Task: inverse folding
């Protein structure tokens, strides 16, 4: 019998289960099931419209405005600060690093579905008891492939892809928060500067009142009480200036940190005073259902739920046996020059099965753990959606009511200015005492200060509404798990 006939006879003697295993392998790889529940996108009953009467019925495209909502304030420096923060903020860079980590982990999970090949080589020099000294050279390859018959590896890949999606949405969430934080801080800076300007203007007016009262006191037209009231009024307003100056400078430091720069880096740029920016248009709130695809935190919660669902399948797969194909090719010779000759080869190939028969209790407990974690993520998703709905409703109400408050303060400031002019004229003519001037000036200062703060509140609530709607990020391709 020649060598070829021998090989044929050996093949004929191969056990039938091995032949069946080899023939059925391609079919298993194509049709193999994946244990565990399939992810189903969560559904929640969303209101058809916003309950707030101030929501409006604008028909403008929300998707076109929300990614760069700060443009509606028409403030070039405002826009520049946000764009620079998005390019250099350290929290955002950390989020980007987490995305890269998740992407690498997803690649590692996908690599687990393929075979592994290990190479090894060795040289051994030995001496026998007979005094013979010799060399032994060995080299070879070992390969193994775990067949994902029950889908545990595929569920792991699915979970890793969902983790990647969650990391990307987490980065988008940082973008949303960062844009809003830079905007709020910038508004706070301009409000502080405006309040400081109001204080200085009132100081100038009160200093003039002190001069007038001093002159009248020297002429014996008023008593010392009027002079004391005028000086006390000026001193009180003057005391507010250092506090406001400190707040303005600290706000500049906060903006620098948000832009990833040293505290004093923006002082020269931000010192020139400017008005609080006002949005040019109302916010198109869209529909409540839009939040499910716009808000990164909702999308992240959905991805986290997807990952938790997939990991149930990973845990269930541990209940079943693992099938592996393994093979090895080796060469061994006492001379290095003839190591890789075909005659010196050795090889092995065959399937194997392993089954954790005595860890069933631990596996079942792990399955229950994963199910409970999935339930937790499902509840977290519902909580995230409800919180988003509340934030939008709060923002709609606050934006409208703050605007009403600002309009009322505009009227109050105008009325108080007239009162100050009238009280000063009457006092100069000797028709009233200085107390009327003090009261009028104090009311005017309070109204102007409140107006500055109210103008900032209007802008801040508008920013909060844009944030609640999920504005401030551009859609990025997220891999489907």
Result:
């Amino acid at each position: 019998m020649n060598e070829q006939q021998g090989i044929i006879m050996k093949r004929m003697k191969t056990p039938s289960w091995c032949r069946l295993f080899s023939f059925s392998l391609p079919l298993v790889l194509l049709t193999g099931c994946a244990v565990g529940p399939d992810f189903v996108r969560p559904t929640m009953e969303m209101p058809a419209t916003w309950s707030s009467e101030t929501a409006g019925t604008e028909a403008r495209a929300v998707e076109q405005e929300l990614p760069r909502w700060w443009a509606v304030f028409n403030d070039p420096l405002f826009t520049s600060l946000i764009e620079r923060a998005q390019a250099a903020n350290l929290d955002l860079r950390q989020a980007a690093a987490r995305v890269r980590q998740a992407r690498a982990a997803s690649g590692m999970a996908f690599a687990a579905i393929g075979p592994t090949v290990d190479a090894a080589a060795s040289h051994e020099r030995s001496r026998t008891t007979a005094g013979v000294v010799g060399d032994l050279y060995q080299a070879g390859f070992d390969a193994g492939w775990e067949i994902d018959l029950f889908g545990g590896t595929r569920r792991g890949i699915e979970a890793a892809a969902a983790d990647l999606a969650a990391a990307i949405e987490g980065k988008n969430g940082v973008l949303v928060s960062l844009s809003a934080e830079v905007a709020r801080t910038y508004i706070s800076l301009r409000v502080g500067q405006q309040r400081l300007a109001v204080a200085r203007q009132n100081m100038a007016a009160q200093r003039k009142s002190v001069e007038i009262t001093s002159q009248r006191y020297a002429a014996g037209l008023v008593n010392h009480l009027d002079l004391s009231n005028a000086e006390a009024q000026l001193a009180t307003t003057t005391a507010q200036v250092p506090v406001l100056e400190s707040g303005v400078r600290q706000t500049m430091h906060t903006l620098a940190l948000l832009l990833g720069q040293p505290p004093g880096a923006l002082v020269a740029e931000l010192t020139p005073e400017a008005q609080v920016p006002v949005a040019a248009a109302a916010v198109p709130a869209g529909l409540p259902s839009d939040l499910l695809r716009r808000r990164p935190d909702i999308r992240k919660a959905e991805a986290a739920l997807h990952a938790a669902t997939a990991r149930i399948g990973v845990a269930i797969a541990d209940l079943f046996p693992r099938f592996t194909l393994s093979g090895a090719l080796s060469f061994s010779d006492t001379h290095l020059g003839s190591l890789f000759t075909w005659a010196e080869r050795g090889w092995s190939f065959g399937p194997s099965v392993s089954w954790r028969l005595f860890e069933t209790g631990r596996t079942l407990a792990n399955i229950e753990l994963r199910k409970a974690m999935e339930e937790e993520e499902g509840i977290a998703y519902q909580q995230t959606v409800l919180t988003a709905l509340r934030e939008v409703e709060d923002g709609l109400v606050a934006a409208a009511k703050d605007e009403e408050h600002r309009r009322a303060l505009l009227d109050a400031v105008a009325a108080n200015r007239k009162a100050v002019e009238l009280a000063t004229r009457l006092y100069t003519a000797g028709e009233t005492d200085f107390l009327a001037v003090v009261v009028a000036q104090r009311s005017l200062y309070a109204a102007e200060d409140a107006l500055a703060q109210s103008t900032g509140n209007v802008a801040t609530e508008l920013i909060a509404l844009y944030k609640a709607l999920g504005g401030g990020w551009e859609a990025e391709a997220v891999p489907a798990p």
